[in-house]
């Protein structure tokens, strides 16, 4: 299964000395430094502070940092809880790393909302949300990914990323690592040299990834060791090299991956050549399950993937067990559903029910592996001829995104209150995406 670890670029985190400036008076006549206890303010960039980082350093819990249109060459780290960072215009407020810094925005405090802006040209991540000090410092680990060694697992709890465009970043567009209780929604990712959206190392996650578009990435969405109340729902994952993977990986903690719900997504045409090429060469797969267990795939439309619509395999010594494929529609894939176990590690209890499909490997899986299955029933093996992946392009050369929908009332709404735990979706409410949504740019979500 495809895995890309950052092998070439390991740039040091760009540092920006905080600029402390005087801000305008509040409505009650006090300035931000002498405000009444509990008062919340809006800090405008550049009117009240010349940079986003300077404004964030002034903010207190409950404040809104509102950024005017412009291109900002900085890496922003948010270490204050419960502040909102919002752009006045999603496509015109641009945090541009100029390939000189690992991260555009690092969220390292709970209850933070990042909204309505664009992050681009970072050597690692557009937006990183993390409880890991090593990850926040831009330290990629010995093997090139986010192997944090003997650092204890520490979760950042509660976050929101909404209406963010993350494009042409060297690792992930939007990345939640060692984080819980959050939402990634209404966002767009492209040109990520690994994954557009990535959730890693959480258990239980209590994370909802909904109504996003991921295209022209190496992988649209990836969940690694992301387990328990992990929902990927109503997204458009089209035109990547690989649409979606959920997997276990020894490089991160909290093995194995299990208990994710993938529902109501459009996952199609994931064999786009004009995308960043993965080190491991994955291409043409809609959904990949690599050592993941007890996941549910419900009412997704999986179409036009050259290699396979959905493939299940083992990773190293970790088997994929008890995955359920329910009420999905597969069309025009080389193989709709298949599994293969090339090593001694086998999967058990994987099953299908109520799907519209044409081809499986091994043949007749809808009969031989129908749900429910005994927990210890062994899945048959199968193989197929995988297409040769074409060469990719540098992530810096991926096509620029079109304008995306704005955050409602961006300049007039107050700060966003991020709940301690998000409302988790009822998967019964997610319908199969219509075939008409295969049209370019169509959104899939339930809103």
Automatic annotation (TrEMBL):
Q: Which residue positions does the secretion signal occupy?
A: 1-25
Q: Where is this region: Disordered?
A: 368-389
Question: Which InterPro entries does this entry report, sorted A to Z?
Answer: NosD_dom (IPR007742), PbH1 (IPR006626), Pectin_lyas_fold (IPR012334), Pectin_lyase_fold/virulence (IPR011050), SCF-Subunits/Alg-Epimerases (IPR051550)
Domain Periplasmic copper-binding protein NosD beta helix, first and last residues per copy:
167-337
Which Pfam families is this protein grouped with?
NosD (PF05048)
- Ranges annotated as biased composition (Low complexity): 369-381
Record's keyword annotation contains Repeat? yes
Q: Which UniProt keywords apply?
A: Repeat, Signal
From the Swiss-Prot or TrEMBL record, give the protein name. Answer: Periplasmic copper-binding protein NosD beta helix domain-containing protein
The organism encoding this protein is Streptomyces antimycoticus
